[in-house]
């Protein structure tokens, strides 16, 4: 039937608006390989068009595939930055992405405007009115994804820290005596990359723990800004450690400094 043999992972599907018998598939295979496939008979048989797959941490994190409602064989593959094909997946180019956040996952069109595209990525929502030549960021939507949060015991108001998807670990006050209330300037970015589970040191609100993906744990001194990596390392002659994407943190209840 033309589909690849062996284990297949995440598959993105799209149906042509112009010729609904035509179906496209972005297929993940072993070790970050795969390709784009096209069927002209509603999926009964398939033809491989290219070896194109999403990159970054791997195709499993992307692979959403969209067919343009305005142009036959025009495809958009979600990736760190969107890839576009105008020949049914045989070749792809990167969409212009100046001033746009990375890690694109969702796409929307307007049936009445072929130049309009809306993109959802790890940074929020962007829209283009000129076919992806330029992008407008929609700033007033609080859509940041938080994995986990932690609180310290600062007085008079405790602080809240949260690890976010590709927007680092952020922290801010739970309350304020400022007449204007809590403002954006009251929040700080304490660690970059993808943030996951933060933790605090009981009795010492100046020390927090935050992490990047895959166990890149750090001890952070809020007063000095010092960031020390404390990711566990293998001993001599030991195999390298393996970490979950969202590795857990536990502060010792017996010795809070551990």
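^ structure tokens above, recovered residues below v
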């Amino acid at each position: 039937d033309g589909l690849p043999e062996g284990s297949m992972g995440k598959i993105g599907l799209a149906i042509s608006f112009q010729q609904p018998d035509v179906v496209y598939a972005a297929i993940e295979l072993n070790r970050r390989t795969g390709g784009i496939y096209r069927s002209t008979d509603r999926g009964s048989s398939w033809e491989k068009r290219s070896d194109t797959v999403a990159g970054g941490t791997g195709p499993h994190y992307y692979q959403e595939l969209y067919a343009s409602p305005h142009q036959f064989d025009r495809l958009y593959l979600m990736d760190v930055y969107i890839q576009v094909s105008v020949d049914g997946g045989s070749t792809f180019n990167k969409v212009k992405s100046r001033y746009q956040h990375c890690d694109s996952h969702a796409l929307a069109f307007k049936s009445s405007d072929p130049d309009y595209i809306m993109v959802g990525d790890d940074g929020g929502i962007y829209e283009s009115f000129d076919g992806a030549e330029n992008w407008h960021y929609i700033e007033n939507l609080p859509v940041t994804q938080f994995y986990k949060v932690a609180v310290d015991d600062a007085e008079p108001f405790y602080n809240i820290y949260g690890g976010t998807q590709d927007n680092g670990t952020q922290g801010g006050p739970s309350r304020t005596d400022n007449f204007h209330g809590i403002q954006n300037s009251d929040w700080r970015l304490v660690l970059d990359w993808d943030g996951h589970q933060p933790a605090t040191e009981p009795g010492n609100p100046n020390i927090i723990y935050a992490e990047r993906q895959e166990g890149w744990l750090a001890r952070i001194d809020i007063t000095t800004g010092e960031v020390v990596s404390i990711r566990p390392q293998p001993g001599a002659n030991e195999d390298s450690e393996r970490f979950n994407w969202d590795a857990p943190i536990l502060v010792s209840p017996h010795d809070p400094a551990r």
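The radius of gyration is 23 Å.
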